[in-house]
C-alpha cells in the first residue's frame, strides 16, 4: 500500500481542511493511497504522534475553519530534528510527506528534501506574500473578515466622531491592508512596503475630519513610519527567529490623538482574520491544491510546491517558491493613495 503523511504547520488559515480533503479523496480515488495525519505539525512528526486519515475522516470538512490536524510552530531543523523526521518516515513506511504551511514550513521542507526526505509543499498564508503563486488560499477569507470588521468600526467611529485605527495582519507584505482598506473606504492605508511619515498620516486624518468624516486608518502589523528602523515587535522572536509583530495600531492611536487632537481608538483584529469558515474562492483553490499535491507525489515531483499561475495549478521548485516575496508594487499603492485623506 502506498502511504503519504500530511501535516499543517505555522499559523492556521481558512481553507486548510479543504486541502486535506482534496488530498485524501484524490489520493484514494486516483492512486489508492493510504494517508496518516500528524498532530500539530512538525511536532507530531518528531514525536510520531499520528493517526489514520481514511476518506471517512474528511467528510464535510472543506467548510470548516482551522485544521483538523492541529498545528504548531515547531522547527524540525533544530537539534536532531532532521533525523527524527527521517526515522518517522521510515517507521510508518511513507512514500513522502505533504507539508501545508507558509514561508517557515516551506523552508524546512526544502532543507529536508536536500537531506533525501520526500516532501511536497502546499503554500498556506493569509498574507498572500509568496512570489511563486498568484494567490494563497486564506487570503480571500482574511480580507473578507477584515473588511466586515472595519465596516463595523466605521459606524462606531462616525457615531462618536472618532478616528478609528484598524490593525490587520501582514508580516512581509501589506496585501490584506491594501485590499480590506480599499474595500472599506479607508482614509489612509499603511503597509510595510511604503513607509510614510507620521506628519503625512496626520494630514490624511485631518483632511477627512475637515470634510466632516470620521477618519479611518488601516495599518498592516509590520508597518513602520518613516524614521523607524524596524516594525513594532515588543514580544520578541518566534521559533523561526522572526519578530512577533503586533501593536503598531495602538502606537498610532496615541500619536494621532496627540498630534491631531481627534479622539482616536485602535483595534487589533489579530487572530479573527485566521478563524472562521473559508470563502468559496478559498475552498475551491485549497481543494485544487490538495488534489495537485497528491498528483505531484504520485509523479515523484518531490521538492516542489503546488502553485496557482493564472487559472492553472503548476509545480515550482521549493527554492524558487522561497526565492522572492510578493510585495505590494508601487503602482498598486499609488492607485489606492489617490483616495486617501
Automatic annotation (TrEMBL):
Keywords: ATP-binding, Cytoplasm, Glycolysis, Kinase, Magnesium, Metal-binding, Nucleotide-binding, Transferase. Its EC number is 2.7.1.11. It is found in: Cytoplasm. Pathway: Carbohydrate degradation; glycolysis; D-glyceraldehyde 3-phosphate and glycerone phosphate from D-glucose: step 3/4. Substrate binds at residues 125-127, 162, 169-171, 221, 265, 271-274. ATP binds at residues 11, 73-74, 102-105. It holds the Pfam family PFK. It catalyses: beta-D-fructose 6-phosphate + ATP = beta-D-fructose 1,6-bisphosphate + ADP + H(+). It comes from the Bacteria. GO terms for cellular component: 6-phosphofructokinase complex. GO terms for biological process: canonical glycolysis; fructose 1,6-bisphosphate metabolic process; fructose 6-phosphate metabolic process. The record marks 104 as: Important for substrate specificity. Its main location: cytoplasm. GO terms for molecular function: 6-phosphofructokinase activity; AMP binding; ATP binding; diphosphate-fructose-6-phosphate 1-phosphotransferase activity; fructose-6-phosphate binding; identical protein binding; metal ion binding; monosaccharide binding. SUPFAM superfamilies: Phosphofructokinase. The active site is at residue 127. Mg(2+) binds at residue 103. Residues 3-295 form the Phosphofructokinase domain. Homodimer or homotetramer. Catalyzes the phosphorylation of D-fructose 6-phosphate to fructose 1,6-bisphosphate by ATP, the first committing step of glycolysis. NCBIfam families: PFK_mixed, PRK03202.1. Belongs to the phosphofructokinase type A (PFKA) family. Mixed-substrate PFK group III subfamily. This is ATP-dependent 6-phosphofructokinase. It comes from Pseudarthrobacter niigatensis.
Amino acid at each position: 500500500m502506498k502511504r503519504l503523511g500530511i501535516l499543517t504547520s505555522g499559523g492556521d488559515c481558512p481553507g486548510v481542511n479543504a486541502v486535506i480533503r482534496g488530498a485524501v479523496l484524490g489520493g484514494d480515488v486516483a492512486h489508492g493511497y493510504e494517508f496518516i495525519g500528524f498532530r500539530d505539525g512538525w511536532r507530531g512528526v518528531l514525536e510520531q504522534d499520528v493517526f489514520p486519515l481514511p476518506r471517512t475522516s474528511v467528510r464535510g470538512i472543506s467548510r470548516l475553519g482551522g485544521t483538523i490536524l492541529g498545528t504548531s510552530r515547531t522547527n524540525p531543523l533544530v537539534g536532531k530534528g532532521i533525523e527524527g523526521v527521517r526515522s518517522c518516515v521510515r517507521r510508518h513506511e511513507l512514500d513522502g510527506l505533504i507539508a501545508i504551511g507558509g514561508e517557515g514550513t516551506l523552508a524546512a521542507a526544502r532543507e529536508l528534501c536536500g537531506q533525501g526526505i520526500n516532501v511536497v509543499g502546499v503554500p498556506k498564508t493569509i498574507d498572500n506574500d509568496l512570489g511563486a503563486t498568484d494567490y494563497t488560499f486564506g487570503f480571500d477569507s482574511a480580507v473578507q473578515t477584515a473588511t466586515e470588521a472595519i465596516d463595523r468600526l466605521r459606524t462606531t467611529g462616525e457615531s462618536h466622531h472618532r478616528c478609528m485605527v484598524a490593525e490587520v495582519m501582514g508580516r512581509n507584505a501589506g496585501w490584506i491592508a491594501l485590499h480590506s482598506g480599499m474595500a472599506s473606504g479607508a482614509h489612509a492605508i499603511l503597509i510595510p512596503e511604503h513607509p510614510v511619515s507620521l506628519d503625512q498620516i496626520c494630514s490624511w486624518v485631518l483632511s477627512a475630519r475637515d470634510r466632516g468624516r470620521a477618519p479611518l486608518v488601516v495599518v498592516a502589523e509590520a508597518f513602520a513610519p518613516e524614521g523607524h528602523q524596524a516594525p513594532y515587535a515588543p514580544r520578541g522572536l518566534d521559533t523561526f527567529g522572526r519578530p512577533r509583530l503586533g501593536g503598531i495600531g495602538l502606537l498610532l492611536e496615541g500619536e494621532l490623538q496627540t498630534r491631531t487632537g481627534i479622539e482616536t481608538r485602535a483595534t487589533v483584529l489579530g487572530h479573527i482574520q485566521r478563524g472562521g469558515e473559508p470563502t468559496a474562492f478559498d475552498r475551491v483553490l485549497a481543494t485544487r491544491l490538495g488534489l495537485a499535491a497528491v498528483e505531484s507525489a504520485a509523479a515523484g515531483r518531490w521538492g516542489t510546491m503546488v502553485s496557482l499561475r493564472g487559472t492553472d495549478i503548476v509545480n515550482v521548485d521549493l527554492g524558487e517558491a522561497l526565492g522572492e516575496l510578493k510585495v505590494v508594487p508601487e503602482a498598486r499603492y499609488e492607485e489606492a493613495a489617490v483616495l486617501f485623506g
